[in-house]
């Protein structure tokens, strides 16, 4: 793989020399003159053909070389909800981005939107690959020169993780190992990891700080915690700059309406609360199911810390800028304020203008009663604080995108 990528990047002259096969011509020196001329002509024609057919000989792909002043970020899961928003922000900030995604959960439509916004060569490329395929991942790292990796790709539904735990350990823990191994082999210096508040489980004391003990209670949280452990152990003896961001509940979408959240319809039943609200508001589902009203919280429904995706991607850019070689930064990314499911539903009703029917059901396995962050550390160390903290406004922005695209990225 290394040899291949080197020869690809060799200047044209050196390449045609080796292709010219001088040894072979030497052997034929005593043969007849016409044969020799014919052979040389054929070889020259072959050279020209090879050079013409492969643009990388004449101009190496901008993604395959380090360019001073340009930071090339590999965004895994960049076709997904958060990864696509992060890519948009990175491109706006003049980063170079390669998205790797196998579209098992993401949307090609999101990639197309990004490509149409940044069509210039060398800004964005999309590579369709499964991260579980270590050989393909190795090839991607050998052919591209990344400065940093933002690793979003994962399966990310608590309920689903209790039903299909192996899928979670595979696509979260094992795939993170694959990505790290390639980063180590190809000396990629900076790693930003998407972790989650689900790694804390259900701590007794709120709010959650970064030193709150991690005791996850479902396979999703456990798989993410295991991935964190692998990253931490690796970083102890490495010069890699690592940032682990533990997100709380992500909502909202691009304020300019270019991107949105469009999960697979078959995931609806495992879905997140905002998607469930929108489906109910659009009449796709009969109403909104609230699972659990007997939790030990003021109104009996679960309490969560809802973080707007615009704030979240801002935290990623700040983490990338402040990452230091040989150091690990671990940060909660939340607003610091908990809101109940009932509060969320009433904000959703206001934002959509629909009087959504609400059904109250028993608890769902794997849910925690109350989870909210203490975001002091990230404010002090990365100068980040949540700006988009009006729940109703965040939901309104997301609703606008949902309403204008009844089939998600499938149609507009
Ligand atoms: N959404 C949240 O509230 C939330 C909260 C905490 C943490 N996170 C984390 O943020 C990250 C992104 O979440 P999201 O909400 O954008 O999810 P998403 O499902 O929208 O995006 C995940 C993307 O990863 C891709 N992917 C999954 N497995 C893959 C594989 N094996 N190979 C290649 N691509 C693969 C999917 O196709 C999808 O595009 C995840 O790591 C998730 O655990 C999300
Ligand atoms: C994603 O990768 C998995 C594992 O290799 C594979 O089973 C699945 O078919 C892929 N999904 C798509 C849409 O290609
Ligand atoms: C996750 O891993 C499984 C194999 O365990 C694979 O079949 C699947 O396609 C992968 N991706 C997703 C999104 O489930
Ligand atoms: C912190 O961020 C604010 C606003 O985003 C900015 O005005 C300020 O200069 C930053 N402070 C430091 C020390 O970088």
UniProtKB/TrEMBL annotation:
InterPro entries noted in UniProt: NAD(P)-bd_dom, NAD(P)-bd_dom_sf, UDP_G4E
Question: Could you tell me the keywords of this UniProt record?
Answer: Isomerase, Membrane, NAD, Transmembrane, Transmembrane helix
Q: Which cofactor does it need?
A: NAD(+)
Keyword Metal-binding in the entry? The reply is no
One Pfam match, given by its short name, reads GDP_Man_Dehyd
> Which Gene3D superfamilies does the entry link to?
NAD(P)-binding Rossmann-like Domain, UDP-galactose 4-epimerase, domain 1
**One BP term from GO:** galactose metabolic process
Segments spanning the bilayer are: 33-51
Report the residue ranges that make up the NAD(P)-binding domain in this protein.
74-389
One GO molecular-function annotation for this sequence?
Answer: UDP-glucose 4-epimerase activity
**Cell wall biogenesis/degradation: is it a keyword of this entry?**
no
State the similarity comment. Belongs to the NAD(P)-dependent epimerase/dehydratase family.
PANTHER family to which the protein is assigned, alphabetical: UDP-ARABINOSE 4-EPIMERASE-RELATED, UDP-GLUCOSE 4-EPIMERASE
Q: What is this protein called?
A: NAD(P)-binding domain-containing protein
Q: From which source organism is this entry? A: Trifolium subterraneum
Which lineage? Eukaryota, Viridiplantae, Streptophyta, Embryophyta, Tracheophyta
């Amino acid at each position: 793989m290394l040899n291949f990528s080197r020869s690809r990047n060799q200047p044209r002259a050196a390449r045609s020399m080796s292709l010219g096969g001088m040894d072979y011509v030497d052997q034929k020196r005593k043969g007849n003159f016409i044969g020799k001329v014919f052979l040389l002509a054929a070889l020259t024609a072959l050279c020209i053909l090879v050079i013409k057919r492969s643009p990388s000989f004449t101009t190496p792909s901008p993604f395959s070389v380090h360019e001073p002043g340009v930071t090339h970020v590999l965004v895994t899961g960049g076709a997904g909800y958060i990864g696509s928003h992060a890519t948009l922000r990175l491109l706006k900030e003049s980063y170079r981005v390669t998205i790797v995604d196998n579209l098992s959960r993401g949307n090609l439509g999101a990639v197309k939107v990004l490509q149409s916004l940044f069509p210039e060569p060398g800004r964005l490329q999309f590579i369709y690959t499964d991260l579980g395929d270590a050989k393909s991942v190795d090839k991607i790292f050998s052919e591209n020169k990344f400065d940093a990796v933002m690793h979003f790709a994962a399966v990310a539904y608590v309920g689903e993780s209790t039903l299909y735990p192996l899928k979670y350990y595979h696509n979260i823990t094992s795939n993170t190992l694959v990505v790290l191994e390639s980063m180590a082999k190809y000396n990629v210096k900076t790693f930003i990891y998407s972790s989650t508040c689900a790694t804390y489980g259900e701590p007794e004391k709120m709010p959650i700080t970064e030193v709150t003990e991690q005791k996850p209670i479902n396979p999703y949280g456990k798989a993410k915690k295991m991935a964190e452990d692998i990253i931490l152990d690796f970083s102890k003896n490495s010069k890699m700059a690592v940032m682990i961001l533990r997100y709380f509940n992500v909502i909202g979408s691009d304020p300019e309406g270019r991107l949105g959240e469009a999960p697979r319809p078959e995931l609806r039943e495992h879905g997140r609360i905002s998607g469930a609200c929108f489906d109910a508001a659009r009449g796709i589902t009969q109403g909104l199911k609230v699972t659990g009203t007997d939790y030990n919280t003021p109104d009996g429904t679960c309490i969560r810390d809802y973080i707007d995706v615009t704030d979240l991607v801002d935290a990623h850019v700040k983490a990338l800028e402040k990452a230091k070689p040989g150091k690990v930064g671990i940060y909660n990314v939340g607003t610091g304020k908990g809101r109940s499911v009932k509060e969320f539903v009433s904000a959703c009703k206001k934002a959509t203008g629909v009087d959504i029917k609400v059904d109250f059901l028993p608890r769902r396995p794997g849910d925690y009663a109350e989870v909210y962050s203490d975001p002091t550390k990230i404010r002090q160390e990365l100068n980040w604080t949540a700006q988009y903290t009006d729940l109703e406004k965040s939901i309104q922005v997301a609703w606008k995108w949902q309403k204008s695209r009844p089939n998600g990225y499938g149609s507009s």
